[in-house]
User: What shape does this take?
Amino acid sequence: MQPPGPGMPAKALPGVRHVLAVASGKGGVGKSTVAANLALALHKLGHSVGLMDADIYGPSVPMMMGLGTVDQRTTPFPILKYGLKLMSMGFMVDPNQAIIWRGPKVAQAVQAFLFSVDWGVLDYLVIDLPPGTGDAQLTLTQSAPLTGAVIVTTPQDISLIDARKGLRMFREVKVPVLGIIENMSHFIGDDGKRYDIFRTGGGKKLAQEAGVPLLGELPIDPRVAECSDQGEPIVSKYPDAPIAVAYLTLAQTIAHETQNRQAPEALPEVQL
Amino acid sequence: MSGSPVLRPVKLKREGDQLVIDWSDGIRTAVTWQTLRQQCPCAACQEQRAKPPDPFRVLSPRELAAGAPSPVQMLPRGYYAYQIIWNDGHDTGIYTLENLRKMSQVVSSASTAKSSS
Assistant: This one.
């Protein structure tokens, strides 16, 4: 794959109707799990969906989807699994090998995913971003026709601090923030009681501060980790679980939010 | 944290040694290419500007051959900026819309255009 250059398409993702960035400032809030399950939930609603893993240093999509490295000479990208079109650095690099790259190489890889992978016609391309506000995020916001970003956070303040930074970054680069997703929101025990393990209300607080909707509150379910490790996201493996139902509701909310929303108008070309 | 209405360019055109921009609020601004090159916002140029001037700096053959600053390409970057590729080969400056507006001088506004017509 090559980065965009002479002879490459000038526009990224020409057949994709909505490009959604799943982001957070902080690592460990479950962004990749949310991105994978949200993509599957959108697919279950009848949409054609792709999932692009923009975490170049720590790709999660292959393991979560029960895939591994592939032979690039014989396997065309994107790879189809569970009805989703998938692309990840993890398909190309052995999971035991560290990717030790400076920023420009990361930017090149993200651009290659956007410009050189034949995503075809999709209703949604969900992009799983790495944590932070660095090269991958900047490249994406400079190159992809984003419909909007969703910010994933957990309820506690330590997560909100960095989620705010992520939100501000999208605001600065004029990408609409569709809303906040609170992951690991609460746990319903066998006794039927609700336990707020990581405190409560953080997602709502951030949404109110930012003037954007709280798109969903996803409960804790220990089977999420089991599903991720075994290569079948919980929305697919346990479709009746409360968390899978919560993902479907989240997908419906996002579909509703994006229904009449187009990506912002592209900036005009300069007449030189 | 919610944002104000987005100010964006409607039309950008080279006019001689200047970049003329018509903005969504009806303002027309102009800025010389020389100013844009001198105020390049990339990290390397910012660092260079922060240093005291080097009286012994020798221009590279490419800089010498390039002459006055002139854009080879000016490309939209996302919804928020433009990247200028200069005739001296420099291409790392990303000029945000806010920066372009700040660096430019107002040439006319919607109200002055109306009153003069």
